[in-house]
Specification:
single chain, alpha+beta, 2 domains, nine-stranded mixed beta sheet, two-stranded antiparallel ribbon, 13 helices, 13 strands
Length: about 375
């Protein structure tokens, strides 16, 4: 600790160089953390084991074509099926087009049984099942628009030529997509004139091991009908919506690594220049009795402190940016995983040590007489 003041003083010696080096490292880790967090969050969402016994049954031609509501009875009678919930997409907006967020209608009777991992409060679930205009809202959407329990809101139709008036009776918690809003399908059907078609029928299977059997049974049951079905596990169903992002995610990961590598080279060059300019000072310190390992440790500490300050600044910036980004319809606001935070920390330590270790070692071990003579 007695050398800490000397380390700080050396960092303040060339304030411009220190600040620019810190900013360059912060920018690189900001980009790295932001780019790596997006695919990490989505992959974690798709790999969630809680969804392993839920499947989505929809029209084989695509979700937008719909399937008859009457399929519910046949699906419910299928062995190993515990719960069945029909869903119709509404796609309304709150005020402006920019206010879009995922909203859909679902059958209220078995919502709790279908999505127990959403951790809907029992009183909220009861109100949802008894109030025709009830709605459950994810926490991200609640914060985004300043909603509160008991509030009455109106969603403007975009797909449909009408609006719906909803009463917020509870929130979606747990592992529910944080940007979702769900309301009762019977209310939507009433306003639509009861067309008898739905977008998706969600099915909860009693055990994950029986999922393939149920998928085969459902698709075979509706084969050669006017609306053949394609039944998929929940992760695969949502994965189709995210498929368009996958190439971007791969490029994001690669770009993050390349940016860190490039800034690492810049930091190494800056550290080498800084240490080279201080060869005389290092030689004097050694001549008055400073051990080589102490000098080396101080030089590495300077570089490490700059890198860690850059890590803190860059990760804080990335965290704030990611909270404002939404993968529409699935994940909601992206939050930086703890694993990415630790990876960025390790990268910062690596940049700090590797960029200074070679020039610092060479300067700390150089012959004192030669170092003084070279300057003289």
């Amino acid at each position: 600790m007695k050398y800490a003041a000397l380390v700080v003083k050396n960092l303040a010696r060339s304030k411009r160089r220190t600040i620019f080096t810190l900013i360059s490292i912060a920018v690189s880790l900001f980009i790295f953390s932001a780019l790596v967090s997006m695919p990490a969050v989505v992959n974690r969402f798709l790999a969630d084991p809680a969804a392993s016994n839920r499947v989505a049954c929809h029209n084989k031609a695509g979700v937008t074509y719909g399937i008859p509501e009457a399929y519910k009875q046949a699906i419910a009678a299928t062995p190993h099926v515990e719960a069945v919930v029909a869903q119709s997409w509404f796609g309304g907006i709150y005020h402006e087009v920019a206010d879009q967020f995922p909203n859909m209608s679902v059958d209220p009777e078995q919502v709790g049984a279908m999505w127990p991992d959403w951790e809907i409060a029992p009183d909220a679930l009861e109100r949802f099942q008894h109030l025709r205009t009830a709605a459950l809202v994810g926490p991200e959407t609640m914060r985004r628009f300043g909603f509160h329990l008991g509030q009455r809101i109106m969603l403007r139709g975009t797909i449909y030529p009408f609006n719906v008036t909803l009463d917020i009776v509870g929130t979606l918690n747990g592992k529910a997509p944080p940007s979702f809003l769900v309301f009762r399908r019977d209310y939507l059907e009433e306003v639509r004139g009861r067309p008898g078609f739905v977008d998706v029928i969600w099915v909860r299977v009693d055990r994950a091991a029986n999922v393939p059997q149920v998928i085969t049974a459902l698709d075979e049951n509706f084969a050669n009908s006017s609306a053949e079905t394609l039944t998929e596990p929940e992760a695969a169903f949502y994965g189709n919506f995210i498929a368009g992002y996958r190439v971007f995610f791969r490029m994001a990961e690669l770009m993050g690594i390349l940016v860190v590598f490039a800034i690492g080279l810049v930091a190494a060059n800056t550290a080498a220049m800084s240490i080279r300019e201080r060869r005389t000072e290092i030689a004097v310190l050694r001549s008055i009795g400073f051990p080589t390992r102490t000098i080396l440790a101080m030089l590495l500490a300077e570089s490490l402190l700059i890198a860690l300050a850059g890590w803190l600044l860059g990760c804080c910036g990335a965290f704030l940016l990611l909270r404002s980004i939404t993968v529409q319809g699935v994940v909601g606001a992206i939050q930086m995983p703890t694993s990415v935070l630790f990876i960025a920390f390790a990268v910062a330590v690596l940049i700090g040590l590797v960029s200074a270790i070679v020039p610092a070692s060479a300067a700390a071990r150089r012959n004192i007489v030669e170092a003084l003579r070279a300057v003289a």
